[in-house]
Amino acid sequence: MHSKLNFSRITATFLILVLPALAQSCDVELQPDYGAPVAHGGWEYRIIANGLQRPRGIVVDSHGALLVVDSGVGIKRLVLDDKGGTCFSVSEQSTLVERSELNHGIALDNENGVLYASSSDKVYSWSYNAEDGTVGETRNTVVKGMDNSGHTTRTLLLSQKSPGTLLISRGSDGNLDEEAKDIETGHCQLKAFKVADVKDALDFTSDGTIIAWGLRNSVGVAEDPATGGIWSVENSVDQLRRNGRDIHQDNPGEEMNFHGYLNSSTEETGANYGYPSCFALWSTDGFPDQGDLKTGNQFAPSEDDGVNDQKCNSDFVAPRITFQAHTAPLDIKFTEDGSEAIVSFHGSWNRDEPAGYVLSSIPFRDGQPVAASDSMDAAENILSNADVGDCPGNCFRPVGLAWGSDGRLFMTSDATGEIFALQKTGASNGSSGDDENSAGRSKERSWFALIPVGILGLVFL
Asked: Can you give the pTM of this predicted structure?
């Protein structure tokens, strides 16, 4: 009788512990053809789709499907089979909008069923039915007049705090855009447009509200869901010299900038952030004529146009956080409670040693970064390449970010044509980067290790 009771208990324990683990197993095993990325800080990941041409911006519709700007192709729709955690498979893939001029920007009004996407010159909209995954036949031009060479992405953000408001970021005409000094040109600006009832196309330069100007190329734009604060991440200038000396390896830094709130006025609202006259200092090592400047302060490359370091720091808004030069932040998304900003760093081309190529987190508290403005380690790695020395030719390069259900994050990698799913599953316990653990299977392996133990218990008791 006693052994029968033990047998029953062991059997019950086996079923309770092992069967859920079996259900968590994932048969989706897309492997990279480069060194397996390394997850950090309690995160795990999987590659859930590949074979796209150049995936950039990404959103999730109300039914959980991914809408992805495949640059040079149009908008792809991926229907996912959600098996829990980071385990997804693509059950259906289609081209929702075939339009090669679409290159990056995308936004989705799930409540009203409107899809927005941008070319270098225009923002378009379509009616969108998430139930059957279709767009209407009519394509509307919402905003026009943004064309310039050089930086051609037009990032889109629909405000959740101010419904019907679309933010658009327009970047620099070339490496250094002198026209950005004139607010009337519309160059290098972040603007907000009321788009709920637009009948005729709005003009980017003459219409809308200036949220910020003097921004070289703020590709990533986000709204803090907790406070409504508007933030951007800035790609700064290349090949810069300071008083005739080359400083481009480690300066200027990339930036995280705060732009106030859409529904109230602050000193940052509509402010000038300095470009093309002033830039953020990253590394002070060997910096010419440093004086009292420290990381995060703005500096002038020279005084030829009448702007000096003092004017840079008194007349323009400095970044809240400065990042390593040339790391190229391309997107920013906040966690639901506003405690973290997740930033994708696409990676450098303008320095001898590669930098960036990483997905990172910046901790926030009370609507502001925890780190001081002169910090050089504000960003904490979430997903990095195994060997940054392999970049850019043989590694993932993160671009677009979008939150799905249950705290799961989707990320595009344009260089590899991939889409990743990530989830934070526990506290930081080091990184995992071998071929299996790094693909999000470490928990499955530990669960399956229980199976033979359970079987042995059944045999001998």
From this structure: 0.89
